[in-house]
Amino acid sequence: MTFKTTTDPRPADLRQRARQWREDGQRAAHDAARNARRYTEQGFDKAPLVFGALAFGIGAGIAALLPRTRQERAYLGRYSDRLYDEVSAIYHEERAKLAAAADHAATQARAAMRDE
Predict the structure, then answer these.
(1) Are 68 and 88 in contact (CB under 8 A)?
(2) Which residue of 2, 10, 35, 103 shows the fewest CB atoms closer than 10 Å?
(3) What SS3 state is found at 104?
(4) What pLDDT does 9 receive?
(5) Contact yes or no for 97/56 (Cβ under 8 A)
(6) What is the tens place of the pLDDT at every residue in 59-84?
(7) Given its phi and psi angles, is residue 77 left (phi above 0), alpha (psi -120 to 50 degrees) or beta?
(8) How far is CA 106 from CA 32, 43, 62, 82, 99, in A?
């Protein structure tokens, strides 16, 4: 039995196209990351207080997630629960403000990228 070999160029062409798509995707991801870093740096230069507020909010969020210690309960006594509730309410309010600010900053960054 004899097998006939064919030299079909399509598989090689498909592999080449797949490689090109992968390279294009990698390049686009790299460019997007570089642009995001540049816009973040520019945003920080223009509005450092916004970034400070974001950092403060993230820190407060992490602190709010941590359980209260025995020492905190001993020092604060009966005021502990009331203070914890107040701090929790402030945290949730500030988190909402920070989310709105982050959303606004992201919208501006997207708009700036479209304008380029």
Answers:
(1) no
(2) 2
(3) helix
(4) 56
(5) no
(6) 888 887 788 788 877 777 777 778 77
(7) left
(8) 13, 10, 22, 36, 10
